[in-house]
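We examine the record.
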Amino acid sequence: MNHNHLYVALVAVMFLGIAYVFNTFPRSEVSLLEKRDLATFPQFSPERLADGSFTAEVSSWYSDSEPFREELMSMSMYLKHGIRLDTGSDNIVFHAAESAGEETAAEEVPAEEPKETVEPEEVLPENPMAADKAKIANAGILIVGTGENVRALMAFGGGPKCGIKFAKMLNNYQRELGGRLHVYNMAVPTSIEFYCPDKVRGKYKSQDAAIRALNEALDDSVTAVDAVHVLRQNIDKDIYLRTDHHWTPLGAFFAAQEFARVAGVPFPPLSQYTQKVIHGYVGSMYGFSGDVALKKAPEDFVYYEPQDVEYSTTFIDFTIDKNYRIIKESKPHKGAFFYRFKDGSSGAYCAVMGGDQRIVEVKTSTGNGRRLLIMKDSFGNMVPPFLFHSFEEVHVIDFRYFNKDLHQYVDDHHITDLLFVNNMFNVANPSTVKAYQRLLQHRNDAGGHGKAKTDSAGLKKETSSTHHSE
């Protein structure tokens, strides 16, 4: 009987302790793992109390902003990492928390499309992860490699025709704006296209095949920028981040170089840039995948600031609500194009341009009469600084955060070249196509506001506001 009383007392103390911590300790406001702002306490009104929305949002706030959220999530990842199950024969590791249905679905994915053929004389670097083992983490993310070479890859399931609607949208842009400018498209593959181990490659679709089909569907007046080939030529270099879903600035350099070639503008070598490094970076894929191996293998985020060219940057910043609708915009203001982050900062990707939720206008000393507008997702953030020597103005618009008349913007700024830079998850997403089409059709709709429904790579929406230097 005494043992029962002791057990009840211990359980009571435990629950009282948890209740004390969760109700008195400071609540979390930002999740660095999930790359988002956490829920805030809702504004009270009698009407919202009556319809139940106030109490529902209080419940959401309470569960979303618990104290020590990051520490608890990290602890869960470490525990999950320790109890994973190794299937052995096919070199794929499934976490214990994965359902059997998910594993079966992965086995049933059709084989990829045939690989692109290359000229016999061209010898391309081999996939450095070709022989590695792999495991599937949360959200179907593939974890390959070990130790400091571990890499997270997003599974791509789009078929060879998944970019056709995007191509038709680009053709519409050329027809609508072609008298004023020339349209270019850079469809950017994600890292799984180049680093997927051979033993599991047949389970995922080829982004190369989809991009080739997209390019074939473009009108002759729309110019395709072949990012796939130039990236494949350089897969032995650090062209994609290991712990994040984005490419690196170096990868964007090679793609921007190809764009400059087809656009017929000057492009300096990498030696004309100052290299900057943020050490100890762990990116978005740690939070998405829940795999602790990524946290144990931080990487350097290396970016490049142009030399021998003068430039000034003007921003219009947007504030969005919880539904990703633009509710406020700043007046145009001058600012730094590059931001300083401390080593270990999870916001290092925003060192270039500061984030997505803004319109960016860069005026350079190039003075060649060429004015570029880049319409992009977050992959496009890395491209502009490599084009300051190529254009006298570089404008940047994120399709998720723009609420103005695009035709008027093009006319007001005398745009001569329009470049689309989007990763293949957005290219294959019908919502992206619709969003771009709305921008083309939008004509100063009174009260119209942009709305962002898709993220930068089809995973989870990043809702944090524009990052600034730490």
Notes: The chain is about 30% helix and 20% strand. Residues 163 and 214 are 5 Å apart (CA to CA). Residues 2-24 form the longest helix (23 residues). Confidence is low (pLDDT under 50) at residues 81-115, 444-456, 458-470.
